[in-house]
TrEMBL record:
Listed InterPro entries: Helicase_ATP-bd, Helicase_C-like, P-loop_NTPase, SNF2-like_sf, SNF2_RAD54_helicase_repair
Upper classification of the organism: Bacteria, Bacillati, Bacillota, Bacilli, Bacillales
Domain of life: Bacteria
The Helicase ATP-binding domain, residue ranges: 246-589
Any one Pfam family match given in the protein's UniProt record, by short name: Helicase_C
Protein name, as recorded: Helicase ATP-binding domain-containing protein
């Protein structure tokens, strides 16, 4: 037996790998030594088996000793090395600190941590750990080893002398709580062992202060420091006079935001974050207007071109209600399809530029911008050389295409690897050759074929297969490296598609070579994913513009990676300077600025069928958590955050009401059995090989068995089949609660919106519609798939006075107002906190005159409770980034676990104070907002808006008294017109004209040529120009 082999025995076979290094803890042993870290190499199957065995708690053997995992959580890393026939595996305790892998202890609830120093400098590793974990000063870095000497214990390391890497490594256990560490620092300061470093910083601090108290007590000192920093804009600074020329005058804080962005955007891409309803749209219009007026003052030779992308549902609103009512002179063009963008491209390439006095907006839906032409597989189906079998071949080099089998070896591709259905027979092929009906791809014209949408073969890989098999000489292998893309645009004339030829709008815009002066991305958080079609379109439009402004109501979703790609695509230089590269980007970013849980390796390549969606080789799984350094280093200097309280406007009251419901007894027993068995199965399978995606079945199954027990549940994981029986009969507890609450709200003359999440195959919308209809409650489902028609559908429902609408929260997440329906019920939640936050504010907006209520019904003791806590945790981290929550307060709203997405039953019950905790967090979200009663709201709002408008005009240097005189004269003139041309006085004013031919208030009748037509502008659809209601105009 080789003494350097790490071995594991299974019932049917044995596995062995070469040990590199193993750190063990003698104090945490069961049948064998406790494994803290194990590093080993071997064939890929053996490495994966050893890793899975450690995670499953199996006993391993090395030399004459036995080893096993401890009770803590573990992580695993595996990577193929060399030619791919050898793999390196590492399994390590979650409490381990490894430079470059884990920055601090993974288990925040423990006082213990393992510290590993690869270079043997354990004192420096300990000091860095203390500094990062407790936030102690780096100036005392040389004192920490001595100070914490009694808190460390050295661990035994087994080494293979054949490996030189990490040959000096050392590892210790460090056991110390934060309170104990602070007491040690205090004692050292009193004894003189530590001295406060000399500094020119003037300030004061007392133990127990939170961040807010510290800043208030040191406000004077901080103010002096800020004066030295010379901020780009302050609230005492004037704003550009052009803001006063806007038809809709911004509120003072909006004017300051416009000016701050103008002062920044020429140097940095900007982010305008804010609560829903704070006027991010008018800020964007104001920035565009000021940029244009600035160019005019500088005598620019061309006007200003603005590119604006937004969800398609909001484009009509942007055009008619935002741009037209704020900057009436601006020209607006909407790109709806390939023809529109190609027409614009040809104009620009022909030399078109807006004239110096023109401000032009180009609007495009982000979901339209990402679409590309439909693709079709271009491989050729023909017989393999020297064989009777057929395979797909490269259309360029003519070599066979290969795919990998279950054990990772390359084999010739078969028909099923690219196409569905039966392959053509030899008789069909010979007949097609004889009748000259063979297509260029080797398939008979009469043989109908459809290609898989999930692309398994992306490019020619003949050279990869040849290199792995070591076939042919070097010259032959070099000639094989064509790497030809195997998917080309589908052609309608070949009957490969029914669609018209389509181009990627975003890609065409990029080819206009910085034609646009400014790119405004509305709802930028929807472009946060690094591998999404929206993200690709966003990146192309950033490249098409000189400057970038991002608008979002939720800057982050509580995870660090939710902002990383927006920063990478708009300011890659800053990330590169911080050591973040494209290859290490996501993992490095999450480990430094977030809370990294797991890294999953997948094959890279294109994944979108008709989008430019990419798939990265490394995908991270991250828990909610954002380091303050992220905000300080990457956001503060380029971001502005608007809160509703900043506007100075009152709002009606908003109540957030969590409701925890107990299941009926039979339902509860069936659910608990199903949940426990499914959780145990997923946990067991996830610790082995090929476990990616196992937990994806857990959440929808457990949540939906709570909400739809009538459907039952069936989940197949490998060879296991977990079944929950269907429960027929009366309504379950949550449904009964819903019916009672809706009746109560309707009796108070209120209207209700009900949100669901699983509305596809589970048919949650239809289920609730049937229940409410049987209960005598009138309701409708909002499921309009066309984003541009969805707002019209809402208008129809409002005009029909439908009291209850049921919809998926994703359909109304952005761009829609639900002020008519002032009660919102989240019958189901979504794990995406930005979706929950956005959709919860659809009714509570400026202009709402009725009290708003938001209900969160949750089944206690189920996965729904875990989901609720997860949303609360992520909401807390998002508020911290937005500056509404101190880091010292965050722990109250956080819950640390290995996976906040799936929990065992013991973690699914509400704590005694969970409702109070949620309400305190909601209060933080609304802190500083003036909320008034319904009866007083209208009068207070009118006076406040007039006051705020005057403040903005003063900021712009406008003489308010002269402006008021002009307004009064205009109002008097309008009053004269309104009196003279009232309906009852028409005959008196025009005595010589027959009454029936006087077209009053839009009546349509034949009239003499000399008659003046007078129209009431209430019928605005018949007018070419939108004007104020009840204003009269002349039409000659």
């Amino acid at each position: 037996m080789n003494s350097q082999k790490l071995m594991m025995w299974d019932t049917q076979r044995n596995f062995e790998v070469d040990l590199h290094l193993m750190v063990t803890d003698m104090d945490k042993r069961g049948e064998g030594w406790g494994i803290v870290l194990a590093s080993y190499v071997g064939i890929p199957d053996a490495v994966s088996a050893i890793s899975a065995g450690i995670l499953e708690g199996r006993t391993l053997s090395y030399q004459s000793d036995r080893f096993e995992r401890t009770t803590e959580k573990y992580k695993r890393l595996e990577k193929k090395i060399g030619m791919g026939d050898v793999a390196h595996g590492v399994v390590y305790n979650n409490m381990l600190t490894i430079d470059g892998v884990e920055s601090i202890s993974g288990d925040k609830g423990s006082d213990s941590a393992y510290i590993f120093a690869a270079d043997g400098d354990i004192d420096t590793a300990l000091s860095l750990h203390v500094i990062e974990r407790f936030g102690f000063p780096s100036e005392w870095i040389n004192h920490y080893p001595t100070l914490f000497k009694s808190r460390i214990r050295e661990l035994k390391i087994f080494r293979n002398e054949l490996f030189t890497h990490w040959e000096q490594a050392k590892c210790i256990e460090f056991r110390c709580s934060e309170d104990e560490a602070i007491e040690l620092i205090r004692t050292a300061l009193r004894s003189g062992q530590l001295c406060i470093p000399s500094s020119d910083v003037i300030g004061e601090f007392e133990y127990g202060w939170d961040l807010k108290t510290y800043m208030l007590r040191n406000a004077e000192h901080l103010a002096r420091k800020l004066e030295q920093k010379q901020p780009r804009h302050t609230l005492d600074s004037p704003v550009d006079p052009a803001i006063a020329d806007m038809k809709r005058i911004p509120f003072p804080i909006q004017a300051h935001m416009i000016q701050a962005i103008i002062n920044t955007i020429y140097e940095e891409s900007c982010i305008c974050g804010g609560d829903m309803g704070t006027g991010k749209s008018i800020v964007a219009c104001g920035v565009s207007h000021v940029m244009h007026e600035t160019k005019k003052r500088r005598k620019a030779k061309k006007g200003t071109s603005i590119l604006l992308s937004a969800p398609g549902i909001t484009l009509p609103k942007w055009k008619d209600k935002e741009i037209a009512l704020t900057i009436p002179h601006a020209k607006v063009r909407i790109l709806r399809n390939s023809e529109d963008v190609l027409k614009m491209y040809r104009e620009v390439k022909s030399g078109y530029r807006p004239d110096p006095n023109s401000l032009e907006f180009t609007l495009v839906g982000i979901d339209r911008a990402k679409l590309d032409g439909e693709k079709v597989f271009s491989g050729i189906w023909k017989r393999l050389k020297g064989k009777k079998s057929y395979a797909w071949h490269c259309p360029d080099c003519g070599q066979p295409l290969y795919v990998k089998n279950d054990i990772g070896d390359y084999v010739e591709s078969s028909w099923e690897d690219a196409a569905a259905g039966l392959e053509p027979s030899e008789e069909d092929i010979f007949a097609a050759l004889a009748s000259h009906t063979m297509q260029p791809n080797g398939i008979p014209l009469s043989h109908k074929v459809s290609f898989h949408k999930k692309r398994l073969m992306l490019k020619c890989n003949a050279h990869e297969a040849a290199e792995e098999a070591k076939e042919g000489n070097d010259d032959e292998q070099r000639n094989l490296k064509c790497s030809t893309p195997l998917w080309r645009p589908a052609l309608k004339q070949r009957a490969e598609t029914r669609r018209k030829p389509r181009v990627c709008i975003a890609h065409v815009l990029k080819k206009m070579n910085k034609y646009f002066d400014l790119y405004i991305c509305d709802e930028a958080h929807q472009c946060k994913a690094e591998d999404s079609g929206r993200g690709y379109a966003f990146a192309q439009m950033v490249a098409a513009s000189k400057h970038v402004l991002m608008l979002t109501g939720t800057v982050t979703n509580g995870k660090s990676t939710s902002i990383k790609e927006l920063l990478w695509r708009t300011d890659a230089k800053s990330l590169l300077q911080a050591g973040i590269t494209y290859e290490s980007g996501v993992q490095e970013w999450a480990s430094r600025f977030g809370k990294l849980e797991k890294v999953v390796s997948v094959e890279e390549g294109d994944e979108g069928v008709i989008t430019k969606r990419k798939r990265r080789g490394q995908q991270v799984r991250e828990a909610a958590g954002i380091a303050p350094q992220l905000t300080a280093n990457f956001l503060l200097h380029k971001s502005g955050f608007l809160e509703l309280s900043d506007l100075g406007l009152p709002l009606v009251k908003l109540k957030e009401i969590p409701v925890f419901i107990d299941m009926d007894e039979e339902h509860k027993q069936k659910y608990m059995f199903f949940h426990k068995r499914l959780y145990d199965t997923c946990k067991s399978v996830s610790s082995g090989r090929d476990s990616v995606g196992v937990w994806s079945k857990f959440n929808p199954s457990t949540i939906m068995y709570g909400d739809r027990p009538d459907l039952g549940a069936k989940v197949v994981i490998g060879e296991e089949c977990i079944i929950a029986p269907a429960l027929e009969g009366e309504l379950h507890a949550k449904e009964r609660w819903l019916v009672d609450l809706v009746r109560k709200e309707l009796n108070e003359n209120r209207r209700v919106t009900i949100y669901n999440n699983f509305t596809g195959g589970y048919e949650m919308n239809q289920r609730l519609h049937d229940i409410l209809t049987r209960s005598g409650i009138r309701c409708c489902i909002l499921d309009e798939p066309n984003t541009e028609l969805r707002q019209e559908r809402l208008y129809e429902l409002e005009s029909d006075e439908v009291p209850v609408i049921i919809t998926n929260m994703k359909l109304v997440e952005v761009g829609l107002d639900l002020m008519y329906w002032n009660t919102i019920i989240f019958y189901q939640l979504n794990y995406e906190v930005s979706t929950v936050r956005q959709s919860s504010r659809r009714a509570w907006r400026i202009g709402q005159e009725k009290e708003c209520r938001v209900y969160y019904p949750v089944y206690n003791g189920t996965q729904q409770m875990t989901q609720f806590v997860h949303v609360m945790h992520a909401r807390g981290h998002a508020l911290m980034v937005e500056g509404r929550l101190d880091k010292s307060d965050l722990a109250e709203f956080s819950r640390d676990s290995q996976s906040a997405l799936a929990s065992d039953l013991a973690s699914c019950f509400a704590s005694n104070n969970l409702v109070d905790t949620w309400n305190r967090l909601a209060t933080k979200d609304l802190e500083g907002i003036e909320m008034v009663e319904e009866a007083e709201f209208a009068a207070i709002l009118k006076d406040r808006m007039k006051e705020l408008t005057n403040q903005t005009l003063l900021l712009c240097g406008v003489d308010i008294s002269k402006r008021h005189d002009t307004e009064q004269k205009t109002a008097a003139d309008e009053n004269i017109f309104g009196t003279i041309f009232a309906e009852e006085s028409m005959e008196r004013i025009f005595p010589d004209i027959q009454p029936e031919v006087i077209p009053v208030f839009g009546n349509k009748c034949k009239q003499p040529d000399n008659v003046i037509e007078i129209k009431n502008l209430k019928d605005q659809k018949k007018l070419k120009k939108r004007v104020n209601e009840d204003q009269l105009c002349w039409n000659f």
